[in-house]
Amino acid sequence: MDRHVISILVSNQAGVLSRITGLFSRRCFNIDSLSVGVTEDPTISRITVVAFGDGEIIYQIHKQLEKLEDVCKVAELMPGESVYRELALVKVNAQPYARSEIMSIAEIFRANVIDVSSTTMTVEMTGAQKKIDAFIQLLSSYGVKEIARTGLAGLQRGESLLKNDDANDDAQEEDL
Fold it and tell me: Average pLDDT of 104-110?
């Protein structure tokens, strides 16, 4: 089974995310990662879904997504042609004797310490999933207390854009 990253532009309104995830669950297709946020156009949100499956299943889901009323555009973000990032917050045991070691690990991974208490540190890290996994693995020897991950976000490299065709049509009509 291959990993697929699907970027979906949708109308920014209540219930859309539920309809999108419902489509996946009705087909017994597990979502490995999901992130959602508003785009440069406040009426449009971008949903990034990471799922594992064969090409035929992904193709069918792609076609079903395009049929949904609130879906503006669907594209698979291909490896090598896209950039992917994830954000993780990791709260780790940090006794005074271990803090400098944890800070050194954070520095190597270009992570930031964002909170410190008498017994814990919270570190913020942005990067590829494998890099975050390796970071968490190194911190596990200190005792990871809690983890929050955003899920993958991605865009196509270079000048390629995933845009709402309706918005592009409107902009072209205004130019006329």
Answer: 97
Amino acid, res. 75: A
Domains of the chain plus CATH, in order, are 2-76 (3.30.70.260), 83-153 (3.30.70.1150)
H helical segments located in 44-163:
55-67, 99-108, 129-139
pLDDT in tens, 114-148: 999 999 999 999 999 999 999 999 999 999 999 99
Q: What is the model's pTM?
A: 0.81
Angle, helices 55-67/16-26, rounded to nearest 10 degrees = 140
- How wide is the angle at C-alpha 75 spanned by C-alphas 71 and 79, nearest 5°? 150
